[in-house]
Amino acid sequence: MGIARTAKIESVAKLAARIPDGASLALGGSFLHRGPFALVRELIRQQRRDLEIIKQSPGYDIDILCRAGAVRRARTGIVAMEGNFGLAPWYRRAIENGDVELEEHACATLTAGLRASAFGVPFMPCGGIHGSALAELNGWQKLPDPYGNAGETYVIPKIRPDFAIVLANEVTEQGDARVFGTSHWDRIMTRAADRVLVVAERQVATDTFRERPELTLVPHFMVEAAAVLPNAGWPGSCWPDYEVDYPAVEAYLGRDEAALADHLAAAPEAREEIAHV
Amino acid sequence: MGIARTAKIESVAKLAARIPDGASLALGGSFLHRGPFALVRELIRQQRRDLEIIKQSPGYDIDILCRAGAVRRARTGIVAMEGNFGLAPWYRRAIENGDVELEEHACATLTAGLRASAFGVPFMPCGGIHGSALAELNGWQKLPDPYGNAGETYVIPKIRPDFAIVLANEVTEQGDARVFGTSHWDRIMTRAADRVLVVAERQVATDTFRERPELTLVPHFMVEAAAVLPNAGWPGSCWPDYEVDYPAVEAYLGRDEAALADHLAAAPEAREEIAHV
Amino acid sequence: MSESWSPFAYIVTNLARFIRPHEVTFSGVNSSLPMLACLLARRAYDFDFTYINVAGGVDPIPSSVPISSSDPVLAEGSTAIFGNEDFYDLCTRGGMDLCFLGAAQVDGRGRTNVSAIGDWHHPKVRLPGGGGGAVMLPTAKRSVTWRTEHSRRTMVETLDFVTAAGGMHGVVTPIAVFVKQNDRLALASWHPESSLEEVRERTAFDFEAGQARPTESPTQREIEALAALDPERRFETDAAIVLRKEAV
Amino acid sequence: MSESWSPFAYIVTNLARFIRPHEVTFSGVNSSLPMLACLLARRAYDFDFTYINVAGGVDPIPSSVPISSSDPVLAEGSTAIFGNEDFYDLCTRGGMDLCFLGAAQVDGRGRTNVSAIGDWHHPKVRLPGGGGGAVMLPTAKRSVTWRTEHSRRTMVETLDFVTAAGGMHGVVTPIAVFVKQNDRLALASWHPESSLEEVRERTAFDFEAGQARPTESPTQREIEALAALDPERRFETDAAIVLRKEAV
Question: Which stretch is the leader sequence (chains C, D) (predicted)?
Answer without folding.
Answer: none
